[in-house]
Amino acid sequence: MRILMALIAGALVAPLVSVTAHASVRWRPCERLPLECTTVSVPLDYAKPSGPKIDIAVSRKKATKVKRGVLLLNPGGPGDAGLEEPKFVSDHSALAESYDLIGFDPRGTGRSAPVTCGLTDSQREPWKVFPYPAPDGDITDNIAYARQIAKQCFEHDGRVLPHITTANTARDMDRIRIALGERKISYLGYSYGTYLGAVYTTLFPHQGDRFLLDSAIDPGGIWRTAFQSWGRGIEESFDHFAQWAGGDVREAYSELAAKLGNPFRSQVRTMLYAERHYPALLDLLKTGKLEPARLKSATSSAVWWAIACNEGKWPRDPAQYQRDVYESRKQYPIANGLSANIWPCAFWPVPPVEPVGIRKAQAKVLVLQNTKDPATPLSGAVAMSSALGAKLVTADQAGHGVYLYTNHPATAAATDFLLEGTEGFAQRPDSGQVGQQSQRATQE
């Protein structure tokens, strides 16, 4: 293991490789998708460009009219596969007329050298992957789970896991650009995808055109601080739901949480991701009837841990997490200590790399953000837009995700940005007042 760690530590920081852009891919019909597919070969370890390779799965929906460029898409995560994204975007947006829509499975996901950590069904329960403490705040079981997962991941996927980083995924994106023969790319990224986009503009400042970042992460809080912000985000989102619902739903939540435990807490957290779930959430609080739990994808979970643990520093002492959980439960009782709990990162055998320091972007960047977001609070979008020198549009609503979700005026303004740039965006009469129905948004 010492030899493995030494080799890995040297491989995590990779030099940029200059490669001339030229179209070099052959497209074929995608299996079970109305898209074209191909693969792009990239180094597993960018510090050893002539070493082992992995294939990145790429999809395309060609522009239906005059093409202005390519738009790479990332659905977030980390750990979400993206091969289907062009279909989603083309079904909901005029972008399909002017852009070749490009999806890809980030390394470690989907069809791109997938990793699984050999997870069992029990280990994939969502309240374990996203670690809720015991009802009294004790994290003994969480510590055992985190320790086992770290060990198991490297026994099962130790060859690939150390090379799953945001910087390497950004480098893969640039190899996709080169394979497509494009001088620049435009980009749409959600949630974690906002950080990935920011890393790309930092590592490849001259290759970015128009970048739309939706539901942004604070680039200065990678990653433990970002996860700790969930406590505030969940609390604010639940308060917004409570205002919508009326009555003492907080008391109902507390009673059901005591009765149903972490499966209930986990399901409520998921339902706070969109206002359209509010009626179902209110019904859950009235009836206490849980939906069957949907197990987390093994690949998604493994890549989530790899990104989080390979980047940034994490406390190694479990006692630190226990103290933080007790404190967090006092501040954010709905989250019950989730946001401060221990992750496999506390036992990760590979030293983390320093996160990429985000610099002001030379590309045109627009950040979209709901004012109440359970996963990426508004403060993250403010920090991201400041770091990039980007425009920020906030939608006064709750949920995780703005573009192509519910906020139609914001979607129209952002589409104008991608089609016309900042000039086209600024010319919209509602560019500073975008929202849905009685909700409003402000450009900051």
From TrEMBL:
Composition bias, Polar residues: 433-444
Keywords of this entry: Hydrolase, Signal
Keyword Disulfide bond assigned: no
Peptidase S33 tripeptidyl aminopeptidase-like C-terminal domain mapped to chain residues: 339-422
Gene Ontology MF: a single term: hydrolase activity
Superkingdom classification of source: Bacteria
Coiled-coil region list: none
Region (Disordered): 422-444
Residues making up the signal peptide according to the UniProt record: 1-23
Family statement: Belongs to the peptidase S33 family.
Protein name (record): Pimeloyl-ACP methyl ester carboxylesterase
Organism: Kibdelosporangium aridum
